[in-house]
Amino acid sequence: MIEVTIQLLGFIAAAALVVIGIAGMLFLDNLIKKIIAFTLLSDGVNLLLVALGYVEGGVVPILIPGMSVSEFAARAALVFPVGIVLTNIVIGVSTTAILVALAIMLYRRYGTLKASKVLKGERR
Amino acid sequence: MVSVETLFDKVKKWISSFVVGRGYTNMMTGYMTGELQSLVFALILASFFRIFSIPLGMILLVAVIAGIFYFAPIITTLEKENSNDLNRVLFWVVIYFAVIIAVTLWGR
Amino acid sequence: MSAYPSNLWSIPLLVVIPILVAVVVNLIYNRARLIKVISLASAICLALITLFSSYGYHWFTGQPALRPETLTFTFDPGLPAWRLALEFYFGPLQQAMIFIMSLILIFVVAVATSGLTKRQGPYMGMIFLLYASAAIIIMVNDFYHLWIAVEIGSLVVAGVVVGSGTSVSHKAALKYTFFSALSGAGLAIALALILGLTGYPNISDAIMYIQSVNLGEMSIILYVAFGFFVLSWIYAGGLAPIHPLKSEVYGASFPHGTAMLQTQSKLMLVAIGIVMLRVFGNLPFVREVMLAISVITMMLGVVMALIQTDFRWILAYLIVSHSGLVTVGISLGTTEGLVGGIFQAINDVIYMTVLLLCCEALYYFGGKTSTRHSLGLAKKAPWLGVAIILGTMAASGIPPFNGFQSEIILIQASLKAGLPEVAAVILMVSVTTFIALFRAIYRLFLKPPETSEPIVEAKVPMVLHVGLWVLVAITLIIGIYPNIVVSFITPVAEAVSLPWYL
Amino acid sequence: MIELSSSFIVMAYVMVVAITVGAVAALLQKDLLRAAFISGAESIALAFFFQALLAPDLGLTQAIVGTVLLPGIIILGIFKTRRTEED
What we know:
The complex is a heterotetramer of chains A (124), B (108), C (502) and D (87).
Chain A: H1 6-27, H2 31-52, H3 69-75, H4 80-110, H5 115-118
Chain B: H1 7-16, H2 28-47, H3 54-70, H4 74-81, H5 86-107
Chain C: H1 10-28, H2 32-52, E1 56-61, E2 86-90, H3 92-112, H4 120-139, H5 143-162, H6 167-198, H7 203-212, H8 219-237, H9 243-252, H10 255-280, H11 286-306, H12 311-332, H13 335-362, H14 377-380, H15 382-395, H16 402-416, H17 420-446, H18 462-480, H19 483-496
Antiparallel strand pairs in C: 1-2
Helix pairs in contact in C: 1-2, 1-4, 2-3, 3-4, 3-10, 3-13, 3-19, 4-5, 4-10, 5-6, 5-10, 6-8, 6-9, 8-10, 9-10, 9-12, 10-12, 10-13, 11-12, 11-17, 12-13, 12-17, 13-15, 13-16, 13-18, 13-19, 15-17, 15-18, 16-17, 16-18
């Protein structure tokens, strides 16, 4: 029996989000729904990265007065995933904005949001 | 009356069956070349398997030749599978990723 | 290298100047003359910086990669982890690649500002951001910048494609951007896994750690990281399963935009491929996987190019197929293979730009690029016919041109590596390239026109002529004296291919 | 130091359920506006999870971005196109 830690729960939630996101992007037909699935996918990746940086029994990586540096170094959660995730959140927002803008443009052209009509494969 | 069909007529019919209904026979050269190319490419890819094991590679080569005869105009299948449909590409990417992970982990 | 390595100031300019230009040009939006002056001047400035900059490092935080007293990398098990040496490295290879990219940027900017596009400001900004992202990926020596630049690059590709303003381009951009979720997230996970395994964001440090410490069971993590890395590699370069989307991107944008896009993606393929070789090259099956992907890409691209009916789409699929040619050399992993692959990338970028500029010139003759029409252009514009045939000869590897030199290196490398099948595939690709291109050229140029209606003829701008002939001259010069470029590549290829020759 | 792990793990259990249910519920809505709001609610659960995983600064960022910015962009898109999913 594996001991259930917060990290394990994080991995489970991240896996669930990634699977739901990919399934949504694959099987849903509405463009806006696809975009929402995309945000769920990037949320899942963020959660995975943060869970990788978790230290069991650790502290938030902020050096508070009264804490020795060696204790801090031994117990603090990793900070580099936090940097990556912060960037990833920003990138996710900008990508979503671009996707929504393109969806609006395609809606104006075709009058529908159905991906099976707008994005269908075509011969050239 | 029995019509006389030479071998040339048969080959011509077989070739032009690729492009029936397209109304643009100028593409025929392209489709023919593409068909031959993809045939040879499939054989070469099959013979690549000799790197891993030679007997298995020979079996694979025979299987590919049989498959080529079964799926006769490969180029149309290839064209369909190369469609730029989003979901189809997504599907292929997921499969690809699984294969890469499986192969590298197996090779370990 | 006796002195402590100094922080080079000239390298970040290659990234800072394009970003600044993108901002400024975006602000002045629609004043064509001013935009032309600013963007041309800065493109020339970038080319001059790459020519005259000295080699070295620029590090943003932490410490430099080289220690002066021992001349080793920063890896030192005694020091605590999290050193955060985020750095750029500018060497001969980087100089050659960025200089070629700057050269093409000059021509692309000159052509783009002399007609065709409205709303020039944002479009120019996108092209400069494309340059910046490619420059970062070429120079980078840490995973963090690599990931951010790949993300920026994928978003900017969508921007450049949308610039052509057709509904096909909107669709292509939307599809391509959806995939940035998979590839960008995959690269982020790969970065986090390697970081968790080694503790170093710097690529050199991570490699030193992987080679010197026995990872044991933890090496499974490296394989998963490799899988995610491959995902972003195929996304960035448009290799096999993503090639329908990438070729749609190439075909849907303006031809000069495509010239910049293919430059970026081929140089990205080289840069990320070298990183993958350095980090994962010693693992079994890694180079086989990369080789399989590139062979399949070559074959699918060239076969799909044969059955297209539009000159733009033929070029788009040929670009994809020739990206496979580039990665074959890199995934062989030998010195000759690396030299051939990188040389092929540089040559490829040049001759494909020649063909794309010819395609751009077709727009001034009524804009019909479909091979369904026979235009008889050879009589109207003999110079264009000559240029396009020279470009075709370069692309299909006919001796006096540069394509021949790199392809023969690639063929020799694959024969030497014991893979004659790869050599056969390369030969077939170059022959089929010729067939695919010449079918279109025959219909568009040589066949007498079917209809008697006269072709609309606009004045082709002077910069297009100049760019075309300068690039053709470069293909000839490199074809006759290949050592001009090869001498830049060889030391790097020897250094990268070292680990499995020891 | 205050040991928060024992209380955090209960919160984490709740949040795993909330995130999964929220994600599925957002994708099953016929009304796109409601889907956007539910994905915002899922982001709040995610922000609390970040808090439990010792990254409070990320929790703050995710709370702002995930509940205001992202649904805002998507709602803007919905108003420019259409609110319900067509058959």
